[in-house]
Every structure is written in C-alpha cells, then in structure tokens.
Amino acid sequence: MAKAFTSLFLVLLSLSSVNFNCAIKMQKTWCVAKPSSDQATLLENINYACAQVDCKILQKGCPCFSPDNLINHASVAMNLYYQSRGRNPWNCFFTNSALIVTTDPSYGSCIYG
C-alpha cells in the first residue's frame, strides 16, 4: 500500500510541476534581482549574464543605463539572460538572488522584452 501511495504521489508531483512550468510559459514573465541581494552577488549576476547575452542596453546613454545602480543593471541583465533561454524557472535562479515576476518591470524607454 505504501509503495502505491508513493508512486501516486510522485505522479501527482510531476504533473503539478509540468502545470507550473506550463503556466509560467503561457503567462508573460520577467526575471529581476531580489531587493535583498548583496552588491557582490548582483555584480556576479551582471558579469555572468552579460558574458552570455548582449547587454549593450545597459551602457551609458542607452535606455536601461539609468538609474545607474547594481540592482537595476542586474535586473536588466538577468532578464535578458532569462528571456534568451526560454523563460525557464531554472534560468532565473542566480544562486537564489532572483525572482520571476508577472508585472512588467519596464520603465520609460527601458523595455524588458
């Protein structure tokens, strides 16, 4: 009986994760830095993401440069990475310093895509 219950639990668990992943992919989502992230982690996230994707949008004079602070730049870079990798939850982990949000974080001419 315990084995049957365990098997049923595992099937239900796998179905719920499929539904969660499908729900995230159907709804537009963005990846942003957690406000509680420390400066060193934010800098690491920027360096990692920008080594993988084009972060020119963060350069001085470009739409997402201002405000010129680490949390803003990290959020933009992390989201560029997340969007380019198919918006999978695991592409917005960044050592637990990121959040998936359903509210568009775009501002002014800085479009998060």
Automatic annotation (TrEMBL):
Residues 1-23 form the signal peptide. The keyword Signal applies. Keywords: Signal. Residues 29-112 form the X8 domain. Transmembrane segments: none annotated. The keyword Metal-binding does not apply. This is X8 domain-containing protein.
